[in-house]
Design brief:
Strand order of the largest sheet of chain A: 4-3-7-1-2-6-5
Number of strands of chain B: 16
Distance between the termini of chain B: 31 Å
Oligomer: heterotetramer
Distance between the termini of chain A: 27 Å
Radius of gyration of chain A: 18 Å
Number of strands of chain A: 16
CATH architecture of chain B: Alpha-Beta Barrel
Shape of chain A: globular
Strand content of chain B: 15-25%
Bound molecules: flavin-adenine dinucleotide, flavin mononucleotide, FE2/S2 (inorganic) cluster
Number of helices of chain B: 11
CATH topology of chain B: TIM Barrel
Structural class of chain B: alpha/beta
Shape of chain B: globular
Order of helices and strands of chain B: EEEEEEHHEHEHHEHEEEEEHEHEHHH
Radius of gyration of chain B: 18 Å
Order of helices and strands of chain A: EEHEEEEHEEHHEHEEHEHEEEE
CATH class of chain B: Alpha Beta
């Protein structure tokens, strides 16, 4: 874990309100694992005391990228960053995605910035499987060519049918599973997206006995385990539950560990 | 070299800048980013007799220059703390102040007694002022008699320096400061977070699951300075000033109105090395003003 | 069209958005920029029996998302107010609420009696909570018995609606709210500014000539919401929510936790038409949420 | 008095850390009198609740100019304003300089932004007299060619002697007065600058029986007379004193009206 002043190399608008911020952040790049995040102090936001967490999208050379959308005060302020500006980062933070268990077939499921959050993993996994990307409408589907270039099959669903199949991404997942032979093949799923999507993946994992790693999005304070803002309910062996900190013990959890209930409802 | 040391009862601090309870975890959380040994003291998150889960989420919410929290004092219990965290902290030279709380005088006393016997604890901060606990212990912070009972109980249970942490939502903070001194406290700290709340107007629900919480950060700083000034004029024991410190300036304000030491809270979330930068800033200020020690600056407010 | 009207005793307000005492002068100051007739009510700066000069300068200081002030209640005295400002205010249809203060119960009573006889005064707001007066009247805000004496005295002296303005620096604001209701108040307003101070560390002098002052503005809003919630649950009389309103959102928070009306303070300095924009924002919100009236929104906080 | 959203036409650095901001503000221009000010809401300063007051420097067509220096948080933030930005103004505010009494000889004394604050007056006065400009060092001396172009004689003093005479501007004033004939000529002085300079002018005015109008610089809150932040002590006929609001009853006062004491010490 480092604190680093990163230089903004470029800020690019991509589709659907998303931006890609490219930073020179050698310390972050040197240590980042797939699924980890950086905690950003957004400049010129004097009234706001908290940092904002962003998954690492790409990390190459000394360059780090994050892909984000201007949804609130912090992220909208970030859209004004320009080449030459400086950004104070803490990271890499959190427990990312574990490596694929040998002999398993990897399945990725993503929505929103989750597509970016899975990219490093997709690049690193030794087996290239199938990726399911879902969104409301075509511009919400990001990074498809990049995943295909890595050798992944990408299946897309949009709720309005403007790209790929019409409907939820989990329908694609169900169809794929239904036609897949032999059933006995072990699947290891990795998911990042809205809470509803994660919960849907968790249900399938339970039903089909997959291992499923989900990256949750919880409001964060410190990002390092000190403030206990970002907790979510997890099962304990005896049938009880305990809070775990998604910033340090997560953001990636095995889906069966999570207590799925309204208390862990989506934050976005 | 200016003298930054501070003495609170038998506790000797090399610098006057602490980190505030609940904002720096138990030690390991920030250890990668901040050299703990350079802190005046490490004040750990509130410890109770039994493990406690704390409040449902959301637990924090950003407000104008402030942070609202209702964490609900989750903690591993005094035994859990001693097992899980004290061994780590003993590897450092930084003095460890354990913030304690309870739901009854007996619980406070039991925690104090247990920590008195533990190796590596240097003082106890007695949290009587956390607004997040529903079980009634908030009363210890605003009812003078209940307050005295807690402080007296803890005092009798330990030889460690005892530092009651005062509640900010009282009309006469001086009375609580005096009560602490009279009951044998070695110092006092203030302020704890200020009872507050926020509402999501679209859902008409509180922004915190606990409905209300405590306000901290820059927003409350001028209020904290006033209370520290009032408290410091009321007693001779050392006062630790807390509330909205983000740079040396705010820390110096506390010292000038009478604080012997200060603690950095919410600002560590924004910028983890804040406490160390504040320390450097105080040293620099003392040199610029040709003051030999931080003690020489204490209580030097000119009011005419 | 949604119904924005509010009733406080015999006082009928067309909209729930007032301007807070001391932040909008006596009327003429903002009349070029803001149509006074569109305000729920005009609450004038505190009036005492005799003219008062107020504090030395500096009188205000900016803090993080807040404003610190120690104006010291300068005013032309009740006769001066009646002569110099009431004729101007009578040219408007806006209800005029006169904020009054005194150094003794007798002074409060005398001011109330004089205003009762004046043409163009629609209600009295009783300031018991101004932290800036050294003569001891601050006690009226934090001592329950003294508070009741003032409210009872004013109540007996006038047939006008009486609205005590509560001090924020108390442990149990509900007790003061109940005392007001029991003593015959028609409504209550809160919060007044929060005792606070700032120090210039280079000069080691307070930033305010009066040493300490009152904190207002966005910084205190979450604290004010909590106190208004506590007060509104304690009584049935209307509550006016004040503290850090800068947009409809903050005003709606007060209404949702139980306020019948609100007042805009410091934000008028930043942006004079704030009160009118808040009014429009509330109307828009009620329409969006298909609520027939502001009364239908009041106290609808969902806490489970 | 209006509230107006002014467009930034340009922002220019001039010497000595001063900037000239040119705004399109037709309402302000239509009403402004010499010595009045505008109360500016500095954008992107969310943590600061107060506006900042600035004298009107020039007003031509629909363009308003202010000349200012980045001395603190607000003014430093203003230096980032660019053409196309919008600035919320309240104004014109305050009681400016009164017209010259017929038969009097006008003398201007200025320091800092005071040189800008006197420009509209200098242009409007029917008689062009002499202007004394003082500062610490050469770059602090502003607007001299502009005043000369209006037909004023400009005498300059800098404390370090880097421009004009070495020393205080009041020495120039004393020298001028000492050699001026006939002494009986009535002088009307107009001054804007640091408090010490204003006080020095006031002393000369009392001694030599000049009328002297000084524009004071007091911390302001509302700018319109409501908050009572900006008060200064003034004499009342009976030998007593009263506070007057410099935003509405000032910022220009006749120098004998002011109670000159430490309580009205300079704010900058
Ligand atoms: C581990 C992790 C990784 C993330 N990665 C990405 C990413 O790669 N790209 C991307 O676009 N977004 C990502 N997010 C979401 C992103 O952090 C939020 O969109 C962002 O914090 C919203 O900030 P804001 O100020 O714009 O929103 P606002 O809604 O204005 O924020 C208001 C308040 O809510 C809090 N808040 C709101 N949403 C969140 C949230 N999701 N997490 C934490 N705090 C929140 C803020 O701290 C602030 O206190 C990630 C979140 C987490 C937890
Ligand atoms: C009538 C009048 C006309 C002025 N005209 C000009 C001008 O033409 N050009 C120019 O450069 N400056 C002018 N000033 C001074 C200018 O207003 C201050 O330099 C400016 O307010 C400083 O703001 P800041 O945020 O940069 O400083 P900071 O010192 O950071 O401000 C901190 C606090 O002090 C207050 N403050 C500090 N100084 C002043 C002050 N002088 N007046 C009001 N509040 C203050 C601010 O409101 C704020 O609360 C004028 C002042 C007055 C009263
Ligand atoms: C997230 C959080 C948790 C806290 N937990 C505790 C606690 O366990 N015990 C305690 O006495 N104070 C606790 N506090 C209060 C701080 O120690 C401190 O008094 C307060 O935050 C004011 O300082 P600040 O404005 O610098 O944050 C907590 C504060 C925050 C923000
Ligand atoms: C400059 C100033 C003067 C004030 N004068 C008075 C006063 O005379 N009487 C009073 O009851 N409250 C006075 N107040 C308090 C306000 O009426 C209000 O309660 C407080 O400012 C909180 O609201 P805000 O946060 O919206 O400003 C004053 C506040 C300010 C900022
Ligand atoms: S964000 Fe602070 S503990 Fe996770
Ligand atoms: S600045 Fe408010 S009265 Fe002058």
């Amino acid at each position: 874990m480092y604190q680093e002043n990163a230089n903004v190399i470029s800020q690019e608008k991509v589709q659907g309100g998303y931006h890609v911020l490219t930073l020179r952040a050698p310390l972050m790049v040197s240590a980042v694992q797939p699924g980890q995040f950086v905690h950003v102090r957004v400049p010129h936001m004097e009234e706001s005391l908290l940092r904002r967490p962003f998954s690492v999208y790409r990390a190459e050379g000394d360059q780090l990228r994050i892909l984000y959308k201007g949804v609130g005060k912090g992220t909208r302020t970030m859209t004004f960053l320009q080449a030459g500006d400086t950004l104070d980062l803490i990271g890499p933070l959190g427990r990312g995605f574990p490596p694929l268990t040998v002999g398993r077939y990897p399945v990725l499921v993503a929505g929103g910035y989750g597509m970016a959050a899975l990219y490093l993993l997709a690049r690193q996994l030794p087996v290239k499987g199938v990726a399911f990307f879902g969104g409301r409408t075509a511009p919400d589907i990001l990074c498809v060519p990049e995943f295909e270039a890595l050798g992944w099959e990408v299946q897309v669903a949009t709720e309005d049918g403007s790209l790929g199949e019409s409907g939820r991404v989990t329908r694609l997942l169900d169809d794929w599973w239904a036609t897949r032979e032999p059933k006995a093949d072990a699947v290891e799923a990795y998911a990042c997206g809205p809470n509803g999507m994660l919960q849907a993946v968790a249900e399938r994992a339970r039903e089909h006995e997959w291992t499923a790693w989900v990256s949750v999005d919880r409001n964060m304070g410190c990002g390092v385990g000190a403030c206990l803002t970002c907790v979510l309910k997890t099962h304990t062996p005896g049938g009880g539950w305990t809070w775990k900190r998604s910033c340090t013990e997560g953001p990636v959890f095995e889906s069966r560990e999570i207590v799925w209930e309204e208390e862990t409802a989506p934050t976005s | 070299m200016v003298d930054l040391s501070v003495t609170i009862g038998s506790l000797k601090l090399k610098t006057p800048v602490l980190v505030a309870s609940g904002t720096f975890g138990y030690g390991p959380e920030y250890a990668d980013l901040v050299d703990l040994n350079q802190l005046g003291a490490m004040v750990v998150k509130g410890i109770a007799l039994e493990p406690t889960k704390g409040n449902p989420t959301p637990r924090t919410f950003e407000t104008a220059s402030g942070l609202l929290n209702a964490i609900g004092l989750p903690n591993p219990g005094v035994e859990g703390f001693i097992e899980q965290y004290l061994p780590f902290l003993r590897r450092y030279t930084v003095p460890v102040i354990v913030n304690i709380w309870g739901r009854s005088v007996e619980e406070y006393v039991a925690v104090a007694r247990r920590l008195d016997a533990a190796d590596g604890v240097h003082a106890l901060e007695v949290n009587v002022s956390c607004p997040n606990i529903k079980e009634g212990s908030a009363l210890f912070g605003t009812d003078l008699e209940a307050f005295k009972r807690v402080v007296a109980g803890v005092r009798a249970a330990t030889k460690l320096p005892v530092i009651p942490k005062l509640a900010p939502n009282v009309s006469d903070v001086g009375a609580f400061a005096r009560a602490a001194a009279e009951t044998g406290a070695d110092g006092i700290s203030l302020i704890n977070s200020l009872p507050a709340m926020a509402v999501n107007v679209e859902t008409r629900r509180p922004e915190l699951a606990n409905v209300s919480g405590g306000l901290t950060g820059a927003a409350i700083h001028p209020f904290a300075v006033k209370l520290v000034w009032d408290a410091a004029r009321a007693v001779d024991i050392p006062v630790i000033g807390i509330g909205g410190i983000a740079s040396a300036r705010e820390a110096l304000e506390f010292i000038i109105v009478g604080a012997s030491a200060v603690a950095v809270g919410t600002a560590s979330f924004t910028h983890p090395p804040t406490a160390l930068e504040v320390t450097a800033g105080i040293a620099d200020y003392l040199e610029r003003h040709q003051l030999p020690s931080v003690a020489a600056l204490r209580g030097t407010l000119k009011t005419n």
